[in-house]
Specification:
The protein is globular, with a radius of gyration of 21 Å. The chain is about 80% helix and about 0% strand. The protein has 2 domains: about 5-80; about 80-158. The chain is built from 6 helices and no strands. The chain has about 160 residues and is mostly helical. It starts with 10 loop residues before the first helix and ends with a helix. The longest helix has about 30 residues, at about 10-40.
Length: about 160
């Protein structure tokens, strides 16, 4: 008996999911662009800028990048022979971005008030997820591991 969650999704559904993600990415890009344009053109927006706005904009930027990357890879079936949704550079960029946002949030929270338990939990979760994304970026794929072990085995026989 096979696990239905481990079965590959039909190509039609992956393309549909990719197109939906690309549309969402375009909407997020438009919202982020509108916010930047509003910030650049209106003095009132610049006066109302807070650290929460900056953190939200950075999170929106990360989400935008994730949607573009995943949507492109799903819509155009560009898996690069890996079983992951993102490429290695994308995993690395997501991880570094999450760690940067975690550090920025920690600096903002500590400068504004004494951190609460929820603050520590959020910071630890974001930081851990960022580290895990970097681990995924640096991890070898199963195909490269089998190729390396086959090369080592043939060298040992000679």
């Amino acid at each position: 008996m096979t696990n239905p969650y481990l079965e590959p999704v039909a190509l039609l559904w992956t393309r549909v999911a990719g197109i939906v993600l690309l549309v969402a990415a375009a909407g997020l890009t438009a919202a982020l662009g509108f916010g930047i344009f509003d910030f650049a053109t209106h003095a009132q927006s610049r006066r109302a800028l807070t650290s929460s706005t900056v953190v939200f904009a950075l999170m929106l930027l990360v989400l935008c990048g994730i949607c573009w990357q995943a949507g492109f890879r799903l819509a155009f079936h560009r898996r690069d022979g890996q079983s992951t949704l993102f490429s290695r550079p994308a995993w690395f960029a997501i991880g570094v971005g999450l760690i940067f946002i975690t550090a920025l949030m920690a600096a903002v929270i500590v400068s504004a008030r004494r951190p609460s338990l929820v603050d520590y939990q959020v910071l630890l979760s974001l930081g851990a997820f960022g580290v895990w994304c970097i681990v995924l970026a640096l991890r070898r794929s199963a195909a490269s591991n089998s190729a390396i072990s086959a090369a080592v085995n043939t060298r040992e026989r000679v």
